[in-house]
Design a protein that fits this description.
Chain lengths: ~400, ~270
């Protein structure tokens, strides 16, 4: 009974401590509503192709912009390091390339608030399965901030996966098995040494009880008499032999791998995309969330400094797209989990002529407010919001501009 | 010390009648007693092996964690310092206990071997099989050879003071060196997308860890310090000294446990 219990506890302790942080639960709805709205705006996320076999490459790309309404109490990517990551369950893909505005993102970097960045990640399929994949930006001291997800499928057999790279010393190595020979060799060698030492002391059973009694009988002052000359010789041989073996293994390794470098780290710098000028300017006048109707209403003053009339086509917040059908037409969801409200955005007086400054009212309404748990914004200690607005001019050119500020709830 | 003392060797013709006096109950004669003692060995050792393996892997995960889980965290500055700091605990306590109670210099070897076995089980089951990382990227490091050195020092010197000064020092000092044959294949430089990386860095980039972004790695960064290239030996010596002090601390704990009343009631 005791045996079983102890083994049970042991097995439990072995498994329990590793995966708390590794299992990437779909954080789509987990974080506080206000924070999801005011951290990162992700849009134009595209995954191609969506179905691959092992060893084939998929590309995920899009845009993001850190919110200028980023909560002050949370570390933001302009002051702390940020790392472009991918939300998938473990290494089902290997990341072969990731770039922001063309700059490789092997290392961490900083991003300016309110600026826009292009990202592109290339992944090579490794483990067959169907996965919901998100772009992720990890910000130091804040954590992962995820973009909207898409389903991808990998077919084939992981046994066929290979991951070959060429080193600076000119060898081609497979990262799946690199160093495995050395790992096996040296672990086995040291285990053999350890077993030999233990075997020497336990070469003839029983050991524990007789020695325990002998120590008791001799007392602490004379118990050392139990150590024989042969024991001493064995001790010296092991002591010296191990030091020689460590030195020899070191020399052998230096011979085998004459060129090595320390682990590499450091930051990279990346410049944001150039802005779109002041073609569209906005001023938020009032924002109200009406709980019973699941309706978010914003009054805006919009100025059109361009030479073509503009209309508001989309309201994006917390990865949910509220689409104005009059402007965007019939936008189809990418898959069953695409967060899109096809007719979620209604705008009054939605045509701003060149040179005109006009007050417009937008209403973003959909059950997604509820299902994505954004209504809890009303109960946040800091009921502020942020969203990305997309305007379109007569030629179909798109302008994005962020809106945000204080939000008032309406309970009736 | 004229004749060799073989632990546990009891011949029927030279049985000490005093020994039998302690035996009660079902065990009546020497052959039965011998068999009972053998069973104690056979039952205790595997159980302790599992127990200490589980405990040390648990403690190690709490204190060192990611530093030893991933090949791209085992740098030359922090890893050789934090790992022996955490890992010397059980070898010291168990080594002291086994010596005081049994005059057996094998506690440190036993502890490092059980740690290794439990580490392999955890890395294989959790990190490789369940989470899908290549085994080479998450393989454990080894301290078994250094555990034997610690035990052998105690055997030769028969002194905890000396064992701390020499054995524990070597334990910290050689942590990086004994593992270098395992690490070296992961320190070959590669040019990847215009960035210089090592094999380990590249694996850390390629094999996606969503919850462990690059910046959380605590590894050596370049500084203006004068010793530059001597990071490895200087860290090793420092680790050696830290391990000496740590050894004395846990050795003292081992003494306390060995003389404590509850422990004497158990055995
Ligand atoms: Cu998801």
């Amino acid at each position: 009974m005791m045996y079983k219990k102890i083994i049970g506890i042991l097995l439990l302790s072995l498994t329990f401590f590793t995966f708390g942080e590794m299992a990437f639960a779909h954080g789509e709805r987990a974080q506080q509503a206000g924070l999801r709205m005011r951290t990162l705006n992700w849009w134009d996320i595209e995954v191609t192709p969506k179905k691959v076999t092992v060893n084939e490459v998929i590309t995920i790309k899009g845009k993001f912009s850190p919110s200028v309404w980023w909560p002050k109490h949370m570390a933001n990517p302009s002051e702390r390091l940020a790392y472009l990551n991918i939300g998938v369950p473990g290494p089902v893909f290997v990341r072969i390339d990731s770039r922001v505005n063309g700059v490789p993102m092997i290392r961490s970097t900083h991003f300016e608030l309110g600026k826009t960045y292009d990202f592109e990640i290339k992944l090579k399929a490794r483990t067959p399965g169907r996965y919901h994949m998100h772009p992720v930006l990890s910000v130091h001291d804040t954590g992962p901030i995820i973009g909207s997800g898409q389903w991808v499928e990998i077919t084939g057999d992981q046994k066929n996966f290979e991951n070959k790279v060429t080193t600076l010393t000119g060898e081609v190595i497979d990262l799946e098995t690199q160093g495995m020979k050395e790992i096996a060799t040296w672990h086995l060698f040291w285990v053999a040494v350890g077993l030999a030492w233990m075997f020497y002391w336990f070469r003839k059973l029983p050991v524990l009880m007789p020695r325990f009694k002998e120590v008791e009988r001799l007392g602490p002052l004379h118990a050392n008499d139990m150590i024989s000359m042969k024991d001493m010789v064995v001790g010296v041989v092991f002591f010296g032999g191990i030091l020689i073996a460590i030195a020899a293994s070191y020399v052998w390794t230096q011979n085998q791998y004459p060129v090595t470098t320390p682990l590499q780290t450091g930051e990279v710098e990346v410049a944001p995309l150039p802005g779109q000028g002041d073609v569209v300017q906005i001023k938020m006048l009032d924002a109200r969330y009406r709980l019973p109707g699941r309706s978010f209403k914003v009054d805006l003053e919009v100025t059109n400094n361009g030479d073509s009339p503009i209309r508001l086509g989309e309201f994006l917040t917390a990865n949910i797209r509220f689409v104005n059908r009059d402007v965007m037409g019939d936008v189809q969801p990418i898959d069953e989990q695409d967060l899109i409200a096809k007719e979620g955005l209604v705008v009054d007086d939605n045509l701003i002529q060149p040179g005109e400054m006009r007050k417009i009212t937008l209403r973003a309404e959909d059950a997604l407010w509820e299902t994505m748990r954004l209504t809890s914004l009303v109960y946040d200690p800091d009921s502020r919001f942020a969203a990305m607005l997309f305007f379109f001019d007569g030629e179909g050119k798109r302008y994005h501009i962020e809106v945000g500020g204080q939000m008032m709830p309406t309970f009736s | 010390m004229s004749t060799e003392y073989l632990p546990g060797e009891v011949h029927d013709d030279e049985l000490d009648p005093n020994e039998i006096r302690y035996v009660e109950g079902a065990v009546r004669n020497s052959a039965e007693q011998l068999a009972a003692y053998k069973n104690i060995d056979l039952a205790t050792l595997p159980l302790l092996f599992l127990l200490f393996g589980g405990i040390s892997v648990f403690l190690f995960a709490l204190t060192v964690g990611d530093w030893d889980f991933w090949m791209d965290w085992r740098d030359r500055r922090w890893w050789p310092l934090v790992t022996p700091f955490s890992l010397i605990l059980l070898p010291s306590v168990l080594g002291t206990f086994m010596w005081l109670k049994f005059r057996l210099p094998m506690g440190a070897t036993f502890a490092t071997m059980s740690f290794l076995a439990a580490s392999w089980a955890s890395r294989y089951a959790n990190f490789h099989d369940f989470a899908g990382f290549p085994l080479n990227f998450v393989s454990p490091s080894t301290w078994v050879g250094l555990g034997v050195v610690l035990d052998a020092t105690l055997l030769i010197s028969r002194s905890f003071y000396f064992t701390g000064f020499v054995g524990a020092f070597l334990f910290g000092l050689l942590t990086y060196t004994i593992n270098w044959p395992i690490f070296a294949p992961f320190r070959i430089p590669i040019e990847y997308n215009g960035t210089m990386v090592t094999v380990a860095d590249l694996m850390g980039y390629m094999y996606i860890r969503t919850a462990i972004p690059e910046y959380v790695r605590i590894i050596e960064e370049s500084t203006l310090r004068t010793f530059g290239e001597a990071v490895t030996p200087l860290t090793a010596v420092f680790a050696g000294f830290v391990t000496i002090l740590n050894y004395y601390l846990w050795c003292w704990v081992g003494h306390k446990i060995s003389v404590s009343r509850w422990m004497n009631r158990i055995i």
